[in-house]
Design goal:
This protein has 12 helices and 12 strands. It is an alpha/beta fold.
Length: about 350
């Protein structure tokens, strides 16, 4: 339910990787775009009789919510007994730190989120979420299928213990993303003699506001192009503030970081901290400038063996949780054998 021709960022990174992984396994038709674009494309799809040849449908919902055409298409699929799996990737309308109902349109979106999402779920044979916490927020329990973000295995060079760059991917203007405590934390660490710098990979307009210190380097890169930065990267960092939504979400960037084979410094968010702690792939710190500074100090003073072990552990988790693994799970939920046709929306 997203346009896939406008660059890679959180949601589009996920669906693009899933699309490619599914396409390596089955014959795949993809319908994407804005709500109006999807309505036209779904109508053409139905008019051409393509629905009758499908073995399954996989859907990733968008923050913009399903439209009438999406739901009508699924009703038609149900009539033809086509299996449907829906992935609910977020529920930001329910959380004030990400979604403010400060316009009539946004107020309607907040009210409509649960009814429309549950309608989408009702039309589906299986519903999956990135985390149990998000499932609880939407359906009231954590018994739903889990389909966390997958990992892309980057072309990662060995860690250079002398590297002093931290890597962050994504936007830092949303207060909940922790841009302010990240910059303050790095400044504190530098004041203590740890000369680290920040590589911030983001889209235009998503870098921190105001004049940036000379040790912040903004990069406009996507996908595999990011791999070229890794020889100079000591660790990846996730400075998100501990908010109700961040505590239950699983950011797409965490599996991506794991694929870089670099240790992570992450704030103490429930889902993220669990992954890092259980897999021993980095440090969990308090969501404050002081916490981040402490994590940086521990990271840069760790011995090369420890750094390498953290990086190997991150990569091992990524290798066991690639997008191909996630695609295989989708096909399993749909009951589709390999090399069968499927539809993705």
């Amino acid at each position: 339910m997203y346009p896939l021709d406008r660059g890679l960022w959180g949601a589009t990174t996920r669906i693009t990787q899933m699309r490619d992984a599914l396409g390596r396994r089955v014959d795949l038709d993809v319908v994407s775009g804005t709500r109006l674009e999807r309505a036209r494309r779904l109508a053409r799809y139905l008019n051409r009789g393509r629905l009758s040849g499908l073995d399954g449908i996989y859907i990733e919902n968008s923050t913009a919510l399903p439209g009438p055409a999406d739901l009508a298409f699924l009703v038609a699929a149900r009539v033809r007994h086509v299996p449907i799996v829906t992935y609910v990737r977020d529920a930001q309308q329910l959380f004030a730190e990400y979604f403010r109902a400060d316009t009539p349109k946004r107020a309607v979106s907040r009210v409509a989120f649960l009814p429309l999402t549950r309608a989408l779920m009702w039309l589906s044979d299986e519903v999956a979420f990135p985390s149990r916490g998000l499932a609880r927020a939407v359906v009231g329990n954590d018994g739903a299928q889990l389909l966390p973000p997958g990992a892309r295995l980057a072309a990662a060079s060995p860690i250079d213990p002398k590297a002093r760059n931290l890597l962050f991917i994504g936007g830092l203007r949303v207060p909940a993303h922790g841009g302010q405590i990240l910059l303050e934390g790095i400044e504190l660490a530098r004041d203590e003699g740890h000369a680290v710098e920040l590589l911030c990979v983001c889209r235009p307009g998503e870098e921190p506001t105001g004049p940036l210190p000379t040790w912040v380097h903004v990069k406009r890169l996507e996908g595999a192009a990011i791999d070229g930065l890794l020889p100079d990267v000591l660790a990846t960092v996730l400075p998100y503030r501990r908010t109700p939504y961040n505590d239950l979400a699983m950011p797409v960037k965490i599996p991506e970081y794991a694929g870089f084979a670099r240790p992570m410094i992450v704030t103490d968010l429930t889902e993220t901290a669990r992954l890092v702690t259980e897999n021993r792939c980095g440090l969990v710190v308090h969501d404050s400038a002081e916490g981040i500074a402490e994590g940086i100090a521990r990271m840069v003073t760790s011995d090369p063996k420890t750094l390498a072990e953290w990086g190997r552990s991150a990569r091992a988790w990524a290798e066991a949780n690639t997008w191909d693994v996630r695609a295989a799970r989708v096909l399993e939920l749909l009951g589709i054998p390999k090399d069968a046709p499927a539809w993705s929306g």
